[in-house]
Queue: 2 jobs
Job 1
Amino acid sequence: MSNLYSRLAAGFPDPATPFAHLPDGSIVTYGDVARRSAGFAHMLRALGVGVGDRVAVQANKSIDMLMLYLGTLRAGAVFLPLNTAYTAGELDYFMRDAEPALFVCDPATLPAIEPLAKAVGVPRVETLESLASQAAGQPGGFDDAVREDGNLAAILYTSGTTGRSKGAMLSHDNLGSNAFMLKDAWAFTGDDVLLHALPIFHTHGLFVGTNTVLAAGAAMIFLPKFDAQAMLAALPRATCMMGVPTFYIRLLDEPGFNRDLVRHIRLFISGSAPLSADIHREFSERTGHAILERYGMTETNMTISNPYVGDRIAGTVGMPMPGVSIRIADPDTGAALPQGDVGVIEIAGPNVFQGYWRMPEKTAAEFRDGYFISGDLGLVDERGYISIVGRAKDLIISGGYNVYPAEVEAALDELPQVHESAVVAVPHRELGEAPVAVVVPRDKDFADADAIRAGIVDRLARYKQPRAIVFVDALPKNAMGKVQKTQLREDCKDVLA
Ligand code: MCA
Ligand code: AMP
């Protein structure tokens, strides 16, 4: 029984048990989950989606999207969720690369997506709304497709250091092994109610949040997005919360966020970006809770975590999770380094993905001796706790979203006004860090930031667009001609203050 859905469903509680509490006060039960996901699986079959076919989805967060995810697993197809911020230009690339059999979107984006899909040969486009209403008329049972452990369950695109997005292929067992491991490690049970405010097109909200809840037969309070007031209202009914550091920073900004409000909570979990030790301490003083910080990647699922029982140490991501093998390696030679030395974090285990979609060479280049090379720099302290101290990859994480400078620089460099550009991470109080562009204009008197912004607005998702544009006469470069980003980061460090 390797189909992830079948594996999760084998442990589902009584059908009347709540799975999701929705903002309108309605409840989706485990019985509804089984019925509605079966309806979607039937619809996929009716639309000609076969085993192994990709189902691409760009839609606002909703319970129907989760039911489509589960229906896709049941039909043996491959779920491909896309950030709602992606522009038409970005979608064009994903459609060509993934060749989905079906693209699912919202009514508002249908007029833009339909012609795009037609042009690249995607056979069908449906709105989630219409798919859901048709699914409701389908039988409530479905014979789940038999899948091997290594068969694909999902593809999630992650940008690359070279600027081209890569589809990380995740198998049924990559996701299943991680879900059950997390349930045990973080002690999830059927009594839990997770406050869910993360997007569901990324690993954190879709797999870490949803799969762990399903594996435990637990429930969630399903909010459309992070909204501080809605969080304050929901917290007293929750037992745990998962969030990116920005969630915690914003909650601490709320005067009404206090110990009393969270007295039913047993666990706060943070990940996707570094949680500063200061925020960890401030949170602990305000609420009495030590946030459990963990570390993971789209390619590897969750791999390192502070303990559920034991010290959760601020500024560390904890220890390797059960079944996960971690080594700290010399970035150049790959040799394992002794405890205390800084090196690149490398990861092996059943959680590690199957490779990048149709990029065998890229995949091979990111593995060493069976370990996936994360590109994050870390060290292990004498107690075995791991700290992330930097990145060997040129990546900016803004509010939990990844921005690859190479992709932004490529868009900027194509503008007629730009001679060359460099994009660097600059500290931002709420988002952790955000991209800032340093631009050398073709005409040295040109300094029109709005014109630059207008030039990239349709090309890059909003969160990738620079928060500030700084004009300079020349970029600092070393003898090899490589841009000195360390110096630029230092020069720009107060730009967003
Ligand atoms: C929204 N905007 C952003 C971001 N989010 N800009 C930069 N960085 C962001 N993260 C922009 C919008 O385009 C908009 O721009 C303006 O900010 C306000 O939009 P709004 O929707 O109101 O934003 P928000 O609600 O304030 O969103 C901030 C957020 C959200 C709550 C931090 O980005 C979020 O939920 N982030 C979580 C991301 C996540 O789940 N990451 C996990 C990846 P304008 O006003 O100009 O239109 S998985 C992962 O990393 C690994 C595997 C792991 O370890 O988990
Ligand atoms: P993604 O490519 O969206 O899967 O993001 C994965 C990246 O997020 C990792 O390679 C890390 O750089 C970063 N990350 C995730 N969790 C943490 C954390 N707790 N602390 C620091 N960085 C993190």
Job 2
Amino acid sequence: MHEVSSREIINSFLDFFTKNGHLKIDNSSIIPKNDPTLLFINSGMAAIKNYFTGKEKPVNPEICNVQTCIRTIDIDEVGDRHHLTSFHMLGNWSINGRYFKNGAIGLAFEFITKNLGIPIEKLYVSVFAGNKELGLEFDDESKKTWIELGINKNRVLSFGMDDNFWGPTGETGPCGPCTEVFYDTGVGADYQGSGDFDTKRYIEIWNAGVFMMLNKTENLDFVSLPFKSVDAGAGLERFAMVIGGHDSVYETDLLSPIKFQIEALFNVRNLPQNMEEVFEKNMRILTDHLRTTVLILASKIRPANESRGYIPRKLIRKCIAISQKTSNFCGMTYSPNLLPVVEFILDNFNDIYPDFITNKKFVLDQFNLEVTKFESVVQDGLEKLLEHKNKLNLEISGDFAFDLVTTFGLPFEIIRDFALENNLKLDGEKYNKNLENHRNISKFVDKSERSIDEVLEKIYSKIPPDNETNFVGYDNEVVTAKIYKIFSDTGEEICNISNQKKVFLIFNNTTLYAKAGGQDYDKGIIFSYDYITLADITGCFKKNGVYVHCCEMRCGNLSVGDSITIGLDFSRRKKLSRAHSATHLLHSVLRKMFGNELEQHGSKVDENKLRFDFNYDGNISRENILGIEKEVNKYILKNLKCEIKIMQLSQAINYGATAIFTGKYDDIVRVVVFKNDEFVDCADIVSKELCGGTHVEFSSQIGFFVIESVENIGKGIRRITAFVGEKAVEFYQNKISILYDSTKILGSSYDDFVQKLSKKVAVPDVRVKKYTKNLENSDLVYADCDIPLAYKKINERPSVQALTKLAEQIKGVIAVITDDGSVETKSYVSLAVASHLNLNAGKILKQVLSGFDQKGGGNSVNAYGNFGKINVAEFIGKIVELIQKKI
Ligand code: SER
């Protein structure tokens, strides 16, 4: 065998299979389409899952391609010879086509031995040993085929479900028994067929055929597929490794250039001998994780705390930790900047991935932002863990781990890795318990809500199963109902109401929407047959389909079994519906504006007021806010029709309805659609969301939409608060009145108000004391204390590395304040000091910010934090004071 490039292997593979009647199909995006059960495309077949069930039909039954895959399930194995979190799968398929078992095996054998020139003595294969429960026999046909082709029968192994049954990809879908090919990288005696089959020596290079016969359904049953197919896939990196005779995939042309760049960042001359193995493993992990991070970010996924975005966040944090640990044992005083490696990957592999060109800026920005956010957190956390270990502790308690995660923001995986590397016990169980309690406690917003929740829990626990309330409130305002149960205000069950003022009632029917999915509850009244109001319903809650109504009695006595009428407060319902519908339109506008990876992270719908949380790391400028308002109001004016569709969950997903990724849904779901109904023939769908809430019939009923504020609520999550209907008008009128009064005071018109005001208001002198000179090429200024201090106001968060470099250059201190012109009330401040000054940036910033009641911190050379309404002069003045005190 001779070394061939990976690109040559790809060409040879595609050439071989197209010559054998396969049609080459494109590489799909790593983001699955309409498959909420799967985070990323993790094999070639995942992108074409529907072909195997017959839901979609390929143009040709035999197809092939090269597919980029992300398989994070192997993350903890990375660092060994051949496991990766991203790889390229060479795939060939016969979808109800010309070949099945022996055809697939014949093609794989021919390609491996003839085209790649791998000697037969190097090969082992495995076949499926059978499974009674699934009615699957031992795969004799595959075994015979391999032997006929020349594989020694002792090298045809058989394994069970864990090793030789593949799929489904995600939770549901096609799956089946498979046959795999292994390459022997070792020397010495052959495997004797019993004992451990060492998969580090015998590297799996090809899943030469998954014989797709079964479909795993949502109920977790296996049913037969309507026809049989073959799904075969080989890892390009592993092919390149064995053909090139390399010890690991990291020596192939796909990964070695990246690893080389990374190694150059560390001071290997200082590497202690006993750390060589750890160093090699760390370099491999960084190589793999940085490449996968780039692939994910280049698909326009932003790092986030949940769902897809959590993977790059986890990988980047791990890279930061590994890089810091490696720098420590290489005797370096700083941890290197990994951004140039990211740029290298983008520039050197863009012939394979066009996204690396189009989304280069996005990838670099997101990576930088994420490193800036987590670098000092990880560093401080690792220091705390080290301190803990140095105190000769043998265990990391659940409480300590919980404290590090919640108070210091250290990711749990880093604690877990630290425990593993240092042989410390980690009480994960107690940690999870603490986390669970914490989540429950955070659910209680305030004390009153907490006490009502406690009473409700008590009530729910007393309702026997299968007593769901019949909710008829989507189409009715009034309904007659029977009282099923009565509870006192402390949650005790009673049979009748005599002199109680507050009670909780459960009926057989109701028209009131209970608080759910972010929407607040309906209110209403209970009245008798002669229209006398008996009670006000002040709240409505539900659990497992049982609706509990909080009632304040006005008059009369009520007993279990009595018939009453429930009337809905329709005016409140209308206001809630307006706000809820506006939330859907806002969601759709935000995705149109900032990309489809934007996801809802929570919402709150009150009377004419709404709150919508979503993942977005970029800056939301004043122009953006005006743009969002304009677009939502355009939809309102279009008088979009709201249509409710009831369908199966899978149908809804195919229909493209937006769902909360982590949400749990029933099999039958409700999809709320807003569409342009003006032209029946070309109905234009604006929004389709899985939702149980109440909505307007036409968007014009929302009236008017205006944003009150945009906040950054942390960890890349933004919150928009907005008004609709009368509240929106009220909000605008208030603002206009303020402007009107101001023009009167200033003696100006609306049009020249800003001009006149700016002349009047002196621009505060933000500079500190005297400045002796300006720095070249920037608006940095030089403070007159014995250490040079420069400050700058900029629009975007700066890179910590860049600032640190700048501080070294001016041999002084740099302070940076963001002022992006958005309506956010918080500014971001960052401080970097040159290392020779022996100052402590973290301490300085912490002290300065605590004086303003804000938090921040960092390490000795750089630090950052958030700032409320900033008075730059005061802020810089405090820094000067502390520098002079040599803190
Ligand atoms: N889907 C199978 C695998 O991933 C064959 O490609 O192994």
